[in-house]
Amino acid sequence: MSEFLSNKDGYRVAVAGATGAVGQVMLEILEERKFPVSELVPLASHRSAGSRVKFKGEELVVQDLEQFDPAGIDIALFSAGGGTSLDHAPRFAEAGCYVIDNSSAWRMHEDVALVVPEVNPEALEMARHNRIIANPNCSTIQMVVALKPLHDAVPIKRVVVSTYQAVSGAGSRAIEELATQTRNLLNGKEVKVDVLPARIAFNVVPHIDVFLDDGYTREEQKMILETQKIMNSGILVTATTVRVPVFYGHSEAVNVTFSAPMNAEHARDLLAAADGIAVVDDPAGEDYPMPMEAGGTDAVWVGRIRDDASCANSLHLWVVADNVRKGAALNAVQIAELLVR
Ligand code: A2P
After folding, report:
1. pLDDT tens figures, 180-204
2. Which residues in the chain belong to E strands, given as ranges?
3. Is 129 labeled as catalytic in the residue annotation?
4. Active-site residue identified among 88, 97, 151, 250
């Protein structure tokens, strides 16, 4: 892959949505991974323009995205909602900046690359023309990281996935909503439902994003279509996406049917050798991945790997990752790293 951005000691990086749940972690990860930043520009709506965010020990003043002139910015990481991306990403791209967009706005656009660096880095080539690169849905990212090494060994025919998704996937107001509802219920106070579609404290809600005419939700549709686009394959996927009262870390029960024999032992070896995956799978020691431990880490954790006795050539996997890191901010920064490599 020839380089996208001319080799420099440092790049001017903008983060749109810098005050949000994902944007803040984008700043942390740029710093943690020593991304070569010469200037960091935090952007948000007019509501938080003038507030401050921390980057490399400095307090930076948040600017209003709407008023901001992107001339001279090399890379912009967007995590400020789909409407904001539709309105502003083209303006940044036209100014010569590469936009890595965490919203769903551009993901299924046929000219836009949808990239998970461990899975399809080659797709980034598409971004040379339009300079917009989409970061996939959080649940899709962790699943395709786990599927890729298996699919490379024996092509996958079908995937059935059920998710157990943390509230942080719905942003900082949803995190606050779970905390407030939990506190209020424990104190015998009235509970309000505001951000998520139903009470999330002490509950499980099989409804993420809006319902479509076919009975699936848009979150489920995203997992189906994005998996096929990223893996460049007609893999059949069906999904049930569910919100659970967990702050950070999505979990997924994934049932995979292969086009030829594959067994749990072989799958465990393939997964253990793959980039970005940590296998924790010890039934005897009662050890398996959980969001409690995966939160704050970078890996996609896989466990409960077992043959599906009910169906030929099929396996079960349990896949857990920090949805805000690998599911969003980390994946976006990894894409930025490919641009400057
Ligand atoms: P703001 O703090 O000004 O509302 P989260 O996903 O945690 O809810 O965060 C959403 C992020 O997107 C926040 O940083 C928020 O900024 C930003 N944002 C939301 N709407 C806009 C907009 N119209 N223009 C720019 N940034 C926006």
Report:
1. 999 999 999 999 999 999 999 999 9
2. 11-16, 37-44, 52-55, 58-61, 63-64, 75-78, 98-101, 113-114, 132-134, 156-164, 236-240, 250-258, 277-279, 300-307, 314-321
3. no
4. 250
